[in-house]
């Protein structure tokens, strides 16, 4: 079973940044979170990408479905999963939105987006991100949203 870790200390965050987590492109990218580090209520996947030349860490069947669509989309140049949104980069967005940045025991936490892509759209490089979630519906059933 995956090691449960719901928060990171400042030392752990700094160590992950130093390790190169969430940095790089293509075969050099290292995801912020791996399937071994995150407990899952469903299934997680490690899958090789011919597009990026590395193994991707996907935390749900829905992330896998999106990944497979991106893998076969000819305009997609790179796929980076579990991409970190560092507090230093997004704190101002929270302030402007009138919400408090998530913190645990006084440490601003690193949020992540499920997949971020680079794509060639008519010779213009386009970057986009996706947040993929599974939620409960009104009947208490799990659904992918």
Fold and architecture overview:
The chain is of the alpha+beta class. It has a single domain (10-85, 113-144), classed as Trna Endonuclease, Chain: A, domain 1, CATH 3.40.1350. The protein has three helices and nine strands. The protein has helices at residues 10-18, 61-72, 87-97, and strands spanning 45-49, 54-58, 76-85, 103-104, 107-108, 111-121, 124-130, 134-136, 142-144. The strands form four sheets. Strands 3-6-7 form a three-stranded antiparallel sheet. Strands 1-2 form a two-stranded antiparallel sheet. Strands 4-5 form a two-stranded antiparallel ribbon. A hairpin with a 2-residue loop joins strand 4 and strand 5 (107-108). The chain is globular. InterPro entries: Restrct_endonuc-II-like (IPR011335), tRNA_endonuc-like_dom_sf (IPR011856). Keywords: Plasmid. GO terms for molecular function: nucleic acid binding. This is Transposon Tn7 transposition protein TnsA.
Concise account of the structure shown:
Helix content is 22%, strand content 33%. With 145 residues, it is an alpha+beta fold. One of its GO terms (molecular function) is nucleic acid binding.
**Average predicted confidence as pLDDT:** 84
Query: Can you identify the CATH class?
Result: Alpha Beta
- By DSSP, the count of extended strands is 9
Number of helical stretches of at least 4 residues: 3
Residue windows where pLDDT falls under 50 for at least 5 positions: none
CATH topology title: Trna Endonuclease, Chain: A, domain 1
N-end to C-end Cα span = 25 Å
Rg over alpha carbons: 16 Å
Keywords: Plasmid
Protein name: Transposon Tn7 transposition protein TnsA
GO molecular function, one term: nucleic acid binding
């Amino acid at each position: 079973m995956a090691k449960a870790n719901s928060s990171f200390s400042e030392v752990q965050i700094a160590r992950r940044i130093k390790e190169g987590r969430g940095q790089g492109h293509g075969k050099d990218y290292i995801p912020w979170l791996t399937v071994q580090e995150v407990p899952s209520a469903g299934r997680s996947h490690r899958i090789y990408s011919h597009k990026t030349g590395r193994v991707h860490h996907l935390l749900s069947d829905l992330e896998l479905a999106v990944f497979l669509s991106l893998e076969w989309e000819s305009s997609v140049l790179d796929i980076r999963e579990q991409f970190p949104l560092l507090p230093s980069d997004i704190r101002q967005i929270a302030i402007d939105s009138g919400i408090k940045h998530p913190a645990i025991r006084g440490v601003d936490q690193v949020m992540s987006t499920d997949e971020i892509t680079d794509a060639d759209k008519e010779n213009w490089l386009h970057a986009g991100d996706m947040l993929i979630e599974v939620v409960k519906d009104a009947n208490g059933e799990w659904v992918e949203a």
